[in-house]
Amino acid sequence: MKELRLMKGNEALAEAAIRAGADAYFGYPITPQSEVIEYLMRENPADRTGMQVLQAESEVAAINMVYGAAGCGKRAMTSSSSPGISLKMEGISYIAGAELPCVVVNVVRAGPGLGTIQPSQSDYFQAVKGGGHGDYKLIVLAPATVQESVDYVKLAFELAFKYRNPVMILSDGIIGQMMEKVELFEQMPRSTEEYEWATLGKKPGKDSVIVTSLQLQSEEQEKVNLRLQAKYREVEKNEVRFETYACEDAEYLFAAFGSCARITRKALDMARAKGIKVGIIRPQTLYPFPVDEINRLAGQVKGILTVEMNAGQMVEDVRLAVNGKTPVEFYGRFGGMIPTPDEILKALEQKIIGG
Amino acid sequence: MAESNIISPENLVYEKTSVMTDRILHYCPGCGHGTAHRMLAEAIDELGIQGDTIGVAPVGCSVLAYYYFDVDMQEAAHGRAPAVATGIKRMLPERYVFTYQGDGDLAAIGTAETIHACNRGENILIVFINNGIYGMTGGQMAPTTLPGMKTSTSPRGRDVATMGNPLKITELVAELPGTYFVTRQSVHAPANARKAKRAMKKALEYQKLKKGTCFIEIVSNCPSGWKMTPAQSNKWMEENMFPFYPLGDIKVPEQ
Amino acid sequence: MTEEIIIAGFGGQGVLSMGQIICYSGVMQGKEVSWMPSYGPEMRGGTANCTAIISDEQISSPVLNRFDTAIVLNQPSMDKFEDAVKPGGLLIYEENGMTRKPRRTDINICSIAAYDESVKMNNTKVFNMIVIGGFLKVRPIIELENVIKGLKKVLPDRYHHLIPLNEEAIHKGMEIVKEEQAVKK
Ligand SMILES: Cc1ncc(C[n+]2csc(CCOP(=O)(O)OP(=O)(O)O)c2C)c(N)n1
Ligand code: SF4
Question: Which CATH number is correct for A3-186+225-238, 3.40.50.150, 3.90.1010.10, 3.90.420.10, 3.40.50.970?
Answer without folding.
Answer: 3.40.50.970
